[in-house]
Amino acid sequence: MNAVIGDGIPRREDGRFLLGQGQYLDDLQMPGLLHAQVVRSPHAHARILGIDAKLARGMPGVRLVLSAADLLSVGAIPLDFAPPGAAGSDPAWPAPLQPALAADFVRYAGEPVAFVVADSHNRARDAAEAVEVDYEELPAVILTGEAANAGISIWPGFPGNVAFRHELGDAARQRPPLRQPITWCGRDLSSKG
Predict the structure, then answer these.
(1) Which residue of 3, 20, 105, 123 has the fewest CB atoms within a 10 Å radius of its CB?
(2) How far apart are CA 96 and CA 103, in angstroms?
(3) Across the chain, what does the average pLDDT equal?
């Protein structure tokens, strides 16, 4: 093929898609295949007062309904990055772990609260809609730039909702050799709306 920049590239796969013969993951049907649906919080910050999954558990085709109470032995999801210092050992970094399913509080809209498994997509979705979660909505902070001064703590142990501050080098040792005043160059990464 002697293509020139801007030339169209012949595509061999388009025919099956244009003729309705494409296969997607959702089209696959295998013996014993189950479908999952996650029940998510509609609130940015709320206390979970209760989760009632009795109706969902009794629906046809439903194999499993989990809430945080069912996952106590599993524990939380570990951090996927190395925090400054040893996680949990440095008092400045108490390292909260993300629970697989929210237990007492939800800390963001869309946080998983329950998990449903059924023998079809529609049954899983219907059962997820039947899970009743009772919330007490709490004040939320929408803009990142306002979180540090909002007076609302999303994670206990993190005043001002600041996960950590990290500095490199020794500023006191570095300043004397400099003959010119230091000019601050930085970028505010917080959301301004």
Answers:
(1) 20
(2) 14
(3) 81
